Fold this protein.
Amino acid sequence: MRVVVTGASGNVGSALVRRLRATGEHDVVGVARRVPVRATEGIRWMSIDLSRPDCRDELRDAFLGADAVVHLAWAFQPSHDLGYLEAVGVGGTQRVLDACTAAGVGQLVHMSSVGAYSPKRDDQAVDENWPVDGVPTSSYSRHKSAAERMLDSYDGTPVTRLRPGIVGQRSIGSALLRYGVPILLPARTLAAVPVLPMPAGLTIAMVHADDLADAVVRALEQRAVGAFNVAAPTTISAALIAEALGARWVKAPAPLVRGVMAASWQARLQPVSPGWLDLACCAPALDSSRAVNELGWFPKVDAMSVLQEIVDGMREAAAGDTAVLRQRTVRSEVAELLRHGPISHRRRP
């Protein structure tokens, strides 16, 4: 099977490429804005920037002859440049859809998210029929919801929608440090967090990147269509995050925590927008029964183990072989700051 993967250099993409290459049965094309410098055995790389409106022809050429396209490409920074984030997430998805139609692709697997869902009403897990109107104060959620609406009106290539929880693996440690930690803080400071002030209502569905990659491959092999939640059975709470960090959880009102996040984000002291807290407090737990029953999928890694692997990866500044997953050090971050500005406002090279 010839499979083209957009966003192949990122968190989910690296796990999926690893999984596809392991079978030795697939011809894999990886699409990314910054392709790896070193050649990757068993994969052909193409550099395409999905934020550019004129990339449709490049995408069509990349998709020609493909049995399936797996669309993973998404942007998380610069968090203050909402126009760019929308151009990649929403505009990029539209360009992928247009290219799939033009190239006659047999199947499209679109990576949606728990973030597309409307706010929860209680702690009950929701299935794929829950509304996907998003959390209005989260730009990530708004954009994931907008992509879902795009798919609703698309009548071209058959589409599979996967809606995972937060996706983790050890090798994203450095990337998460860059995206979420002030640049002057070394990775080892995560081992010395005394207290964690967080709201009591925070719950996070999680899944390991390898388990999500397994779900993607099952959807490809079975030509499954429709929406599938993909998450470990239990959710992560504020208390469990504190436990993973070795910190003491202090219950703090959500408006207070949000106010501190917003002020520090606006002051460029840290790169995480307050919309991520809103999403963590509003996102529902996920019922993955459909993936279990129809795809034969079941997670091998539980949610707490995923969280602990992420935390350990951040403490060790774990990295991968791509630009997205590259090693993070304080020295390298300061150099990037001087060259391109803070990551939340960065001028993209």
Summary: The chain has a mean pLDDT of 94. Residues 28 and 43 are 5 Å apart (CA to CA).
